[in-house]
Write a structure and sequence with these properties.
The protein is of the alpha+beta class and 74 residues long. Helices cover 30% and strands 16% of the residues.
Length: 74
């Protein structure tokens, strides 16, 4: 399976990565559907708070409404 990390060894989110993710999904996205994004995070993840902030900003700039839920007890 192809590695879909947009920046190789850099795991941190960068503005523009959301468009990269949308491109990976391609025709699997229903253009008629409401543009909503649910982000599920957990405290043991690799993302920094700035990564989540950038993801929210990027999603908003692409017309998506994003919500965040944190998993607990992992």
């Amino acid at each position: 399976m192809k590695d879909h990390t947009p920046h190789g060894d850099n795991p941190h989110y960068q503005l523009g990565d959301f468009a990269y993710l949308l491109n990976l999904l391609g025709s699997r996205i229903d253009a008629r559907a409401e543009k909503m994004l649910a982000i599920i995070a957990h405290p043991n993840g690799h993302a920094a708070s700035t990564d989540l902030e950038l993801l929210f900003k990027d999603a908003h700039q692409n017309g998506y409404k994003a919500t965040l839920s944190w998993l607990k007890g992992i």
